[in-house]
Amino acid sequence: xxxxxxxxxxxxxxxxxxxxxxxxxxxxxxxxxxxxxxxxxxxxxxxxxxxxxxxxxxxxxxxxxxxxxxxxxxxxxxxxxxxxxxxxxxxxxxxxxxxxxxxxxxxxxxxxxxxxxxxxxxxxxxxxxxxxxxxxxxxxxxxxxxxxxxxxxxxxxxxxxxxxxxxxxxxxxxxxxxxxxxxxxxxxxxxxxxxxxxxxxxxxxxxxxxxxxxxxxxxxxxxxxxxxxxxxxxxxxxxxxxxxxxxxxxxxxxxxxxxxxxxxxxxxxxxxxxxxxxxxxxxxxxxxxxxxxxxxxxxxxxxxxxxxxxxxxxxxxxxxxxxxxxxxxxxxxxxxxxxxxxxxxxxxxxxxxxxxxxxxxxxxxxxxxxxxxxxxxxxxxxxxxxxxxxxxxxxxxxxxxxxxxxxxxxxxxxxxxxxxxxxxxxxxxxxxxxxxxxxxxxxxxxxxxxxxxxxxxxxxxxxxxxxxxxxxxxxxxxxxxxxxxxxxxxxxxxxxxxxxxxxxxxxxxxxxxxxxxxxxxxxxxxxxxxxxxxxxxxxxxxxxxxxxxxxxxxxxxxxxxxxxxxxxxxxxxxxxxxxxxxxxxxxxxxxxxxxxxxxxxxxxxxxxxxxxxxxxxxxxxxxxxxxxxxxxxxxxxxxxxxxxxxxxxxxxxxxxxxxxxxxxxxxxxxxxxxxxxxxxxxxxxxxxxxxxxxxxxxxxxxxxxxxxxxxxxxxxxxxx
Length: 720
Prior knowledge:
Elements: H1 18-34, H2 37-42, E1 59-61, E2 75-78, E3 86-88, E4 93-100, E5 107-113, E6 118-127, H3 129-142, E7 147-150, E8 157-158, E9 163-167, E10 176-182, E11 188-189, E12 205-213, E13 219-220, E14 227-229, E15 234-248, E16 262-267, E17 270-276, H4 288-291, E18 292-294, E19 302-305, E20 317-319, E21 326-328, E22 334-342, E23 348-357, E24 365-366, H5 374-379, E25 384-389, E26 393-399, E27 412-417, E28 424-427, E29 429-430, E30 436-441, E31 448-456, E32 459-460, E33 469-472, E34 479-484, E35 487-493, E36 504-509, E37 520-532, E38 540-545, E39 555-560, E40 566-570, E41 572-577, E42 585-593, E43 597-604, E44 609-610, E45 614-615, E46 618-619, E47 626-627, E48 634-635, E49 638-639, E50 646-651, E51 662-666, E52 669-670, E53 674-676, E54 681-684, E55 693-702, E56 708-717
């Protein structure tokens, strides 16, 4: 615990007289009647003070910065790797909500400002005394740590620059202050464009650019695959193309990779797309996956799409046409592309490259129409298709038999088959090296399950197991994507759909990963869930059939992300009719899935780990250790509990823990204790004072596969 110090501000400072409050309120009401609140938000005249007094001021996370599954809804303010910094009200207002949780925002407060907007401060360690009194009263009443308290405006009033709380690290892995600014409509606003200032003298940087083919005839440097290049390059291309940019911003003080405020692309001086990160609705946060492409090979890189994907309705986006792609005609002309990035302080970077339109000569030619033996082709199977989903199209290569040359085939068609829908057909073309290939764009296909086939003059050729089955866009029915020798794996969407339109997802057999979560064992089966151009709007339902011997409650589904992070998905029992006998049932496991990667069946039979109790970091000794009151309970103006904090190391590296499965009892009754999943510790802060005397503390823990452990402590609270 940091050394206590004198409060820099007295919370009991007298408030202005009633007459001045009335006059201020009448003036505010008159202004808001003449000028709507939303109009005031955009005029840039409102200025707020910085909530922390640190030198230098700095941010480690910007507004609408990409996170794992959503856009960041505020600023992360640097606290110099410390906790306990005073957080002051940037403007006058009322605290209307207090949330206390071991996860997410941790300890958070909601300050309703006099102009109608709301500031949210999260990951706090301590509330000021007035706020803590309300939380303690609720915790004592229902004997629970988690709270979500709401208050009428005007009940908990704070002046500008008055102490609200102390910064911390609750609900997060590193100390910092999360601050959100929400408009009167509840939508998050960018604080740096709506009244807050942070020093920044460094312009954003554009490290690299990437063109992506988005039509069947698109080619970049002669190939139908994406092409990365540096600014200033000359790129030969044709067809419909999308542009991606590897961009980052720094404040000039700290080296954190931040998101710039805006991006703009022009083609020959004509605007193509403009993006500005000023606001969004919470329901739109997952659309980040439509705009940001992580780079699995280089985790620190991320690509921002500067063209529109289906389902993207985020504000601050202006497109020349529906998709904001480049449609490059085969005219051999040069086109200048200009990319501009800027931050909230107006620092900007401009990079250019030249798009050279490919000549009119085709890059592929139709398959030669020669005579062929139709019956022999049908008998010569099984044939194979190698299907490679790209950003907005399927690239399909026909793998023929050795006895049939590609040049012998004519009228060859690749067909996309979907239930109750007309097939989509693409004629195969022969490349210069003699291979047969075809392309089908997503626009020509409907959402739902899809299977590819090969036809010659209306007859389907037999295909081998290399034929892929895919899930495209949205679907509302359970769909078997792939069958394996050891059983089946299925993906299906939930009620409100789980995939944005466009993109494909499929499943392949996987291999044993090189490393496993501590305390787990590989059960012998793994599946790799892949996606191309796919974005999750929610969670897919994943289910796998269990082999004999797998029906154990300690077996669960685990996910390994492309970045090497393990996550426990779940172990919900499922069953379905047997493939061979519909009357029989096949046992299985199900879990929600919202990301691609490796899915494994793992066994976790180890109970959660429980360490030894300590008091404020000091080991406890003796059969009945005595805790004495703190000598100095004032810490930066916040009153600490009377008794030292009890701590217990608590972790489960396998299936993991949930807040409801960590139970703390004091003298046989539930007691509000804070479990910190990021620090793997349980903290018993005695805001609810049990009183002097002997006490017994019991902690019971169960992981998400039912493994249990417990620990108890007899101790005494006594004044010397």
